[in-house]
Amino acid sequence: MRKKKTQQQIADECGISKSLLSKIENGQTSSAIATLSKISKALDVPLSWVLDDQAEQNLVLLPKTNRESNVTDENMGYSYELLANRSSYSGVEPTIVNVTPKDSNLRQESYTHSQDEFIYILKGSIYLYYDGNKHYMEAEDSAYFNGDKPHLFIPVDNEGAKVLSVFIDNQL
Fold first, then answer.
1. 93-111 b/e (C-beta count within 10 Å ≥ 16 → b)
2. Start and end of every HTH cro/C1-type domain (predicted)?
3. Which of 39, 57, 85, 152 has the most CB atoms less than 10 A away?
4. Which of 128, 51, 109, 127 is nearest to 84 (CA)?
5. DSSP-assigned letter for residue 104
6. Distance from CA of residue 95 to its chain's centroid?
7. Residue 46: how many other CB atoms lie within 10 Å
8. CB neighbours (10 Å) of residue 17?
9. Rounded to two decimals, what is the model's pTM?
């Protein structure tokens, strides 16, 4: 069930300003998936509701030509494509993370979120920084980890990378 909270309560719970929350809500700015995850948790709604404003359905068919990047920010170094508006009971959020080329920006701040995460490298290669350790990953490599540990995807080269990321909410 959705919780009734003020914008200020949600902002405080997520550790962001009320003005930033308002800009995110009105589509005036993009935000890291970690921040969106915190917002969805504070509202007690699935992350897909924050990423995708479409009504939830039992079957979601999404041809690649209809899929758009939902969250993009040059400074963040990522764009996200929601692959399905999952059922609120499944606890699974399949997403494509497009990691921008190495020289396009500086990524230094790692992310955390409440869900576990499974990643599968579809294209390119990345360094997965996880809980203080650096791991080289290339196409067809996979990893499963707790999202509450600091992590970050860094592209290895200027080709960037495409990562299938599945967020798994074990609290349902």
1. bbbbbbbbebeeeebeeeb
2. 2-50
3. 39
4. 51
5. G
6. 7
7. 24
8. 12
9. 0.65
Residues in Cβ contact with 49 at an 8 Å cutoff, skipping those fewer than 6 apart = 40, 43, 56
121-164 pLDDT tens trace: 999 999 999 998 999 999 999 999 998 899 988 889 888 899 99
According to the model, what pLDDT value does residue 87 have? Answer: 47
Axis-axis angle for helices 18-25, 7-14 (nearest 10) = 110
Angle, CA 106 vertex, CA 97 and CA 46 arms, to 5°: 35
Radius of gyration of the chain (CA): 16
Q: Give φ, ψ of 170 to 5 degrees.
A: -85, 5
CB atoms near residue 115 (< 10 Å): 22
Domains along the sequence of the chain with CATH: 7-168 (2.60.120.10)
